[in-house]
Amino acid sequence: MSHETLDAGAVQLPAEAIDAIERAATSAHRAAHPHEALFSERAANIKQSAVRDVFDISMRPGLVSLAGGSPYLQSLPLERLAAAAASIIANEGLTALQYGGGQGTEELRTQICEVMAAEGILDAVPQNVVITAGSQSAQDVATKVFCNPGDVVLVENPTYVGALNTFEAYQVEVATVEMDDDGLVPELLEARIAALQTAGKNIKFLYTIPNFNNPSGITLAGERRQRVVDICRNANILVLEDNPYGLLRYKGTPLEPLRAANPADVIYMGSFSKIFAPGLRIGWALVPEHLQRRYYLASESVTLCPPTLNQMLVSAYLSDYDWKGQIETYRGLYAERCTAMLAALDEYMPAGTSWTSPEGGFFVWVTLPAGVDTYPLLQKAIEAGVVFIPGAAFTPSDSPSNKLRLAFSAVPPDAIKEGVRRLAPVLREALAA
Ligand code: PMP
């Protein structure tokens, strides 16, 4: 968003925007067509994503969106990518436009092993990798192959809304484990597992985002990492490690992924969405050998094969372009935006609020005093010209939350400051009420 747009004067509240939020908040707008009776029970559990609704609204001119966590793509070498895409189609078009292997191309799986080596996973080999339509699809496949309706998955509280939607669509029970400033608390994880297993529940996996959790920005401390895996291993529970932001660390020391020292216990999911381009929908799972056959078959049954042209374009990017240098550029850019966000929060936020200070990734998590529900504040924030995501979106129950997520990835520093300045009076009023 340019400075000009920001200064464009009073913000008009788009009536459709409010309608969309209200529609998302209620299921009362159902059409009464007889076909409705044909839906599966599963379909009733597929929720409209609050993030997507707000994402659409936040495209309106005049609004500062601190809602959507889109990566900032302007620094990508578009002309070189255009030439690479043209060359692939001109020279290898019949392969690029054809079906490919269900696991993805060998070339890209080999390169993905190099990307994971940059994260500290040194033993990955191409046959242990399956390429998926974003890591979203890797989560879906994992849930499909491990979970029956009524099974339990453990998640951090809060956690990624897209994963919650997947789990709920498969009629899985989602059990939360609290985090502190150092991430998931091992003792609480252990106690939760014991209580659930004593109650006869079938826990299949822990879904965790150890680096710069979406939405909280919190990182699981190094000294807790092995303990978390050990607790799960002892209870025969898999770990699903989701790490799309790991390479986007701009402060502190890089930490080994959970998968690095635990190849048999962790399914690791990665993605090119945050380090390259989300529109290509290329992610992957690194799967322990004993789980591969069914995992790969299930992945194939969803998409037949990952998109061939897009895989070839990612391969060309990784082999012909300085992708590590590009990640450095991203780190610098997101560090600057994170600093702008934290400075604006310091300057404008009312007493009684607090927020996280991420070492990487895209998000800051703001906490209001207990008892304040941030959901109704969204409408007021839109009226004030700023959009955020209410905390309730990141919990399985959608129960009232005194938290909210602010994303700084896609917004220039001056607009971040302006957005926080607009948000402050909305929160101040809520705190005074
Ligand atoms: N996991 C997390 C934690 C995310 O934040 C996102 C995207 N916002 C995804 C997975 C999905 O990423 P992809 O584009 O690879 O499907």
Automatic annotation (TrEMBL):
The keyword Transferase applies. Residues 72-423 form the Aminotransferase class I/classII large domain. Its cofactor is pyridoxal 5'-phosphate. One of its GO terms (molecular function) is transaminase activity. It comes from the Bacteria. Keywords: Aminotransferase, Pyridoxal phosphate, Transferase. Pfam families: Aminotran_1_2. The keyword Ligase does not apply. SUPFAM superfamilies: PLP-dependent transferases. CDD domains: AAT_like (cd00609). PANTHER family: AMINOTRANSFERASE, KYNURENINE_ALPHA-AMINOADIPATE AMINOTRANSFERASE, MITOCHONDRIAL. This is PLP-dependent aminotransferase family protein. It comes from Pseudarthrobacter humi.
